[in-house]
């Protein structure tokens, strides 16, 4: 008879092997992964995950956004399922663990229950959310955003990548556009295990981060327009160099974020220069500002100051500034009951832990709007993520999966 | 009997029609051209030019760099040819005249001589230099650089574009790698007609620029390295944002160029950000600084100050700075005799003119090192070039071709 005791643990070796097997699909150029959403590599990763789920006795549902839901039945036909999961897609130069750990940690949880013959009253569903990263098709967390009604399905399908390809077409091309209507599923709870993607847990020697809040986010896509002209024959006073606008706004973003320390952050990660030729003064620069804070007021003030000052900076250089939102959400506060289940699990298992704010956006931040939600974090080496050198230890992964197992079992109810 | 009188003029309508016909090949997206070097479009443009040359009774030679030499025989078998020409390749978002006017102006000159039955003692060779622009394969003026021995042929062949394709392979692929050894031709003189690519002639209402000097150039390819990390979960003090290095060096380039006014210029036209994702702090930025001045001392001081201060700027941000030269030449002074031939021609034809410095680099700047050389410039609207909206009038083009005709005839000697 299974009990929620400190000896109930996942199989860390098996979890690690699965992580390594998945990492073989869509290898990067420097030891990490390039398995961007709705690419051929993503399709191959999905097929492997599906096979593993079916081998573990689960049944797979796929919705119209391509999100995969692998279900392990419970004993009560009327009980709402407990959902776990994250995403299998990666950054173009991403790591092996960001997202993947949360999906395969959920799979390992089910495999462990199978090994031990543990049944739960509530079904358990392991989820792979489509396009969490948002690099190829902005915004990030696209499928979970559609799931909660933040975005329309048709709008999501129309998102284009840098080559002009549409998300909906690419999803269909790789064969993962399902029939199930998006967002119809009801959840008892949602738990997401994820690497921290920051340096705090490792620096403090903690095994587990109990995520109480997430950072809110504002993505502001900016277009600065000047005038293309020859770098050699245009006298300095006659130039309208959009590159200088980018330079000054880059420093402005930094200056503004520094006013709201220690929690706020701000940077520009994506920049396209037009026509991007060595001997042409940039006539146009398009870039996205990423502001985040767990404090809504800070987030709003940062955005407001940027939108007031950036046009002034550009005007002084003879440039024009335009902007649009390309992603935003307010800081989420996770469900106190689910957070307590995570904290209890870490305590019960004897793992050192601390409460933490999630610096990154996650599918859990959206799902938190429609279901009781919490997140479990494990450390990552040097805080490095969205980088091919992203790294964790087998022990950290196993501890995260153990905590996920206990939090889910406390919620899904072991059947005696 | 032809004489070098003010009634001896090219056919401006025919020149204009040829310019418009060539512009149909490799059309841009906004009315200009995208006929980048050694692309399929370049190959098609070359075939049209070859046909026109053969129709005009010229014979075509092609060297191992793909440079085309269309020869009209002279009466003296021992006389060195007078060369004219420029380039048919364009920027990715280029205009219809940059380079093309100089090649087709040379063709028009020959057609005019044919119309009038004028023979010259020296042969006349109309030249299309391969890869003047240097956008797809740096450095600019690649073929003329190999011609004068500034670059090795094999080195030129190994230049790669953004996709990793090699110049030599692409030249062969489009079928324009000739057998003729590069640089073997001896020239009596070289004349290049080109649009100004700057605002001076139009602003002063001059028909013709008599180019006495060119600007020297330093292209410095810089790599700033920081650390890729997540935009959300990396605290501000722990960031190594290569984008901030780019920002501060952009402003540094401007500041340095402003010290050497009114002749010097400086800007950054080409920027690649890695990994260029909205939610990843740039770990690396690669960009090229373009400094120019007609005064060698200014050019050297600008480069030296940049290379002293940019590493300091980066170090203060926790970044590293590396650089290499990706193109350089010292300010050329054109041949006094050839310059006088251009000035005489403008005088004789009654065109208003002024001496001018070429702001851009041109094949003539390289050829000036091995043969007496001069350039003729005509105005362009609003100084705009390297831009699809680049524009000139039919009258400006015709005046330029007329001056080219007279300068060449004065040098090639009309046979009575």
Shape annotation of chain A = elongated
Please estimate the helix content of chain A: 25-40%
> Main beta sheet of chain A, described?
8 strands, mixed
First CA to last CA of chain A: what distance? 7 Å
| Main interface by residue count | A-B, 74 and 74 residues
Structure description:
2 copies of one chain form a homodimer. Chain A has 416 residues and is α/β, with parallel strands linked by helices. Chain A has helices at 12-23, 40-55, 100-116, 142-147, 153-158, 167-173, 200-204, 242-258, 296-316, 336-349, 363-367, 394-412, and strands at 59-62, 68-72, 82-86, 124-128, 189-195, 208-214, 216-225, 229-230, 265-274, 280-281, 284-293, 320-329, 353-358, 373-378. In chain A, the strands form 3 sheets. An 8-stranded mixed beta sheet of chain A has the order 1-2-4-3-5-14-6-13. Chain A has a 4-stranded antiparallel beta sheet with strand order 9-11-7-12, covered by helices on one side. In chain A, helix 1 (12-23) packs across helix 12, helix 8 (242-258) packs antiparallel against helix 9 and helix 10 crosses helix 12. The model of chain A has no long low-confidence stretch (mean pLDDT 96).
